[in-house]
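Q: Here's a chain of 269 amino acids. Please give me its 3D structure as tokens.
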Amino acid sequence: MGSFTALLDDYIESLVQDDVCDMKISVLKSSTNNIMPIFKREFVSFFNSPIAYIFVAVFLVVTNWLFFTRFFLTGQANMREWFGLIPWLFLLLGPAITMRAWAEEKKTGTVEFLLTLPIRDWEVVIAKFLSALVFLVVVLAFSLTIPITIAQLGDIDLGVIIAGYAGSILMGAMYLSLGLLISSFTRNQIVSFLFSLSVLFALFIIGSNNVLSFIQGPLASVMQFLSTATHFNSIIKGIFDSRDIIYYISFTALFIYLNVQSIGSRNWR
């Protein structure tokens, strides 16, 4: 009798687990179906104006020119100098990509319609974030001709190249999530751009030697840790430290969460 009861309990537990699993899959499919239309709309909108093509052209021209002018002088077959330019370009590119994400929606009034659709706030935020991130990855993908060219001129460390691109994507994701958050606070794209640029620049330089030379003690260590440059410089050396990865993922998740809360508060009314 006891064994029969145990078998019955196991059977009931398996049914409950199956129901929970089916429910999770159903929720995941529902969220994906809600996210994809907004993602496609946002991503396509980048290419419906000349802004996207200007971004790509400026990014490639500036990085290639600055990199190759020094590349032939140093004579080293690596991309460390190129990846060193990325944080500075992303300071402009990140805010430029995200400045209209919420500000334009508020200005035109479409945000009211968007947020009254039968979709969750976090799904809208994730869709906007993913569209911006995929666009940034596309921009980076156009630079793959650089490592291909360098490989023809000498031996390159493929691991360092992969680490550099991975670090660029992680840092870009953090920049975009912060830019989206700031865009949700204003109706003006220029204000969104300038404020995002200021905050990102502050996060970038607080760990520099010029700033830390005036600060001593534990505060200096905290500022160095909070600096985006500290973690990025570590990654582009080919060092995959879990602390650097956790740093970027944590702050990206935090800014996305705050963005959801900002939109959920309906400050746009």
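Q: Can you summarize the key feature?
A: The two ends are 64 Å apart (CA to CA).
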